[in-house]
Amino acid sequence: MPALTMNTHEAYVELIRIAREQSVLSSCADLLEWDEETYMPRGGVAHRAEQSAVLAGMLHERQTSPRMEDLLGLLESSELASEADSAPAVNIRELGRLYRRRALLPREHVTEQARAKTMAQQVWVEAREESDFSRFAPWLETMVGLARREAALLSQGGDPYDALVEHYEPGMTTAQLSALFTVLRSELGPLLGSIVGSRKRPRTAMLRREYPVDRQKLFAQAVAAAVGFDLECGRLDVAAHPFCMAIGPGDTRLTMRYSERSFGDGFFAMLHEVGHGLYEQGLPAEHYGTPMGSAASLGMHESQSRLWENLVGRSLPFWAHFYPRLRNVFHEALADVTLEAFHLAINRVEPTALRATADEVTYNVHIMIRFELERAMLSGALAPVDLPGAWNEAYRRELGVEPRDVVEGCLQDGHWAEGLFGYFPTYTLGNVYAAQLFAAAGERGEAFARGDYAGLLAWL
Ligand code: ZN
After folding, report:
1. What percent of the chain has pLDDT over 70?
2. Which site from 85, 208, 293, 353 is most exposed, i.e. has the minimal number of CB atoms within 10 Å?
3. How far is the CA of 301 from the centre of ligand 1 (A)?
4. How far apart are CA 216 and CA 98, in angstroms?
């Protein structure tokens, strides 16, 4: 390595400038992805795959440049890195970790993955429309193959699944996750049994009455703003799948999906994405583009969405404030429904085939199933083409339910089409972190009932 003829301060300034530039470039790819999920015409998919591949290649080249290595080499042993919690030390440590990880991947792998993921997602959408797994199977095989190659390149002889999890939840291991799932299984199993066996059954039929979509949109905007989402610095759009895409400071985009005959599905997915959006809007803009200005991990990100969706959004004080407003907006559907009956309905626990709308008790079982199945595919124990059978078998065994078709079964989530292997466990981590953060935040019910969410948001 050539010795750098600059002091550590100059080296740090340059490192941060480069990191910011990479983040800006990366945000251009994010904007393309947002467009792909919202407005891109179907015919644009092949060209979008090329755009994504070119950008991913450019980004990778910059992220793994010899200049990065030189700067990190100088800075990692400098006094700037010595105070572990200082902004420079955090940035140097994390940028170094990311650099070394990315340097293990050849550019050709990165571009191939970006191209394949765009195509695979499109085929996944079509396979769902036709309820035909066989259309998606070859692409699942491709994505599993790419993930296996990546895990092999990154793990350097260690656990390949650990290497993938590291991308989403730095420091987390397969062994820790397995132990967490074992505890959850032993606690949640009996709890679910006693709830399902109880004679107390909340009525939920009122949630399936008519909820005009235009009014749902207005109500969603109002609630998003009321809990603190800044609509001047973000958008709510409609897409096939709810997600949050942070483009940069001042631009956090959320997508929603509403159904006329289901109030809960649209509303809680909205609140979930708003939770992600609040986290992004709460990141310090002055640190944009560096680890200090980025989400700590996907599990931490998910803890914010789950906290707002479930711990706040399904609580009685929250609805003590919003229910009168809700009943005004949907008076035909809710005129004869009390606050207490509504609150019980939105908290109903019942095993179903679908993860995204699952209740809090069964949700982690859905994740456990995916954790097992994706590890089986990555290890080669389960051939991707055999996924539907293995999926249905797991659902029968773990939840006692039978998906009606592949749309309700193994095609319900798009993560594997996107090449996201090792990602699912972060949902359960999010649930667990959320519960702990919410407990640590202390009793907030009185404020919620007054419509005051700023205190909790500030604490978070
Ligand atoms: Zn989420």
Report:
1. 99
2. 85
3. 7
4. 41
Would you say the pTM of this structure is higher than 0.85? yes
What are the residues whose beta carbon lies below 5 Å from ligand 1 (ion)?
302, 305
Return the percentage of the chain with pLDDT > 90, whole number.
Answer: 97
Place of tokens 């990311």: 98
3 has a pLDDT exceeding 60:
no
CA of 71 to the centre of ligand 1 (A): 35
Kindly state the tokens that stand for 283.
């990141």
CA of 1 to the centre of ligand 1 (A): 42
Q: Are 253 and 234 in contact (CB under 8 A)?
A: yes
Structure tokens belonging to residue 234 = 């973000």
* pLDDT, mean of residues 428-439: 98
Measure CA 267 to chain center: 17
Q: Supply the residues annotated as catalytic.
A: 273
- Kindly give the distance from the C-alpha atom of residue 426 to the centroid of ligand 1, in angstroms, as a whole number: 9
pLDDT digits (tens, 9 = 90+) for 357-399: 999 999 999 999 999 999 999 999 999 999 999 999 999 999 9
Q: What is the maximum alpha-carbon separation in the chain? A: 77
Nearest alpha carbon to residue 304 among 226, 227, 391: 227
What spacing in Å lies between the alpha carbon of 356 and ligand 1's midpoint?
Answer: 9
- Rounded distance from Cα 273 to ligand 1 centre (Å): 6
Q: What is the pLDDT of residue 119?
A: 94
